[in-house]
Amino acid sequence: MSIGVRALIVSAVLLYATSGIARALTPEEARIQELQRQIEALEQQAAQFRSGIATERAKADSLKKEIAVLKGQIGQIEAQIAATGKKIDLTKTEIGQVETQIEKTREEMSRKRETVGRMVLFLEQRDHEDLAASLFKFTSLSDFLQQFHDLATIQDRLLGMIAELKDAKMSLERDQAELEGKQQELETLNAQALQRRQQLAGVKGERDRVLQVTKGQEAAYQKQLAEVEKQKAAFFKELRELELKVVSGGLYIVHIKAEHVPPRGTKLFSWPEDDYHLTQGYGMTKYAKRGAYGGAPHNGIDIAAGYGATIKSIGDGRIVANGSNSGWGNWVAVQHPNNMVSVYGHMSSLSFLKVGAQVKAGDVLGYEGTTGKVTGSHLHLSLYKEFFTYLKGDELYFNYFDGTVNPSDYL
Questions:
Q1: What's the sign of the alpha-carbon dihedral 93, 95, 98, 104?
Q2: What's the Cα-to-Cα distance from 262 to each of 297, 361, 399, rounded to whole Å?
Q3: 94 burial class (0-12, 13-18, 19+ CB within 10 angstroms)?
Q4: Rounded to 10 degrees, what is the CA torsion of 269, 273, 279, 280?
Q5: Taking the model in full, what pTM does it have?
Q6: Alpha helices in 128-140 (DSSP H)
Q7: How far is CA 403 from CA 28, 340, 385, in A?
Q8: Which domains are delineated in the chain?
Q9: pLDDT in the model for residue 19
Q10: pLDDT on residue 106
Q11: Which end of the chain, N or C, is surrounded by fewer C-beta atoms within 10 Å?
């Protein structure tokens, strides 16, 4: 609900409460209140699911716990889909109210235009009438003077009606602007609902995959993870050779370099997820020392808030690249005003924002997932002082081995 509509309803309630006058709610107002109650209940339910997921994740040291977490995430997204549906219903109701007000304003303007037209026609007739002829129409001079007084009154009323028409026109323009805003809000909510349904399908698919591949056996699950790590190490060795060729040959597609990097500890950006926990830090982590990245350090940080969790831009900027490849899955890169570039990888899906779009800190870029070479749902976040993209076959990649700084130093 927009702030203006919410304030109007609150003001109305206060007015009647303080005056002692009781008034029944209109069907639209009752519908809005009911939708608000349902939305609040669904949001509380989603919060309970988030709390349950955090509790289960802390204990998730076995396959059964992971499946329990996935079930909780399914419940959370289902509640969020339901809440978004209620918000869509609420917005449609508000649009109906605005449309009704627009129609009333137009009808009032039409009536006033007719009245003004009749007044103008009368005044034109008076202007073309000879003064002597006008005098002969009246039996006395006082009647003639009264007619002139009435004429002046009509002229005053005409000016007032014209002013009212101008006010009505401005009111109509405001109502139309509000309606356009409501329609845009509805389109955004519809897009969010579609993305939530895609995430729900992803969560269910991930749970089914875990159940099917491992048949509930912890040993089989751990064997699968080891095989993924082996494939990952081979992939990064191949990637290093390819990047060296790109750099030596200048085969860049996008190339951005920050001339000045702020000192470590400068808090430039905000965290990209809410209720997250750090799963891997920057540099030569224990996982990196096992050869997971072809002997190279981890060039970013990994955080997790649950499959389908919202991923937001860490700062203002512009989307300069995005894509999907076998290494990073769904990813997007944002260039910030100081020419540092943040990259977000392994997302289940990207938002509807396209390359070239301007973003603000907190704008949704996509949703956490397991795409690419991963062993579990998380977000890989890298922060670059020098960033470039290149082609590997028909897939778009970004540099991994050089050019990054520790994101934690600037978050």
A1: negative
A2: 22, 18, 21
A3: buried
A4: -30
A5: 0.55
A6: 131-136
A7: 57, 10, 5
A8: 3-210 (no CATH), 217-409 (2.70.70.10)
A9: 44
A10: 75
A11: C
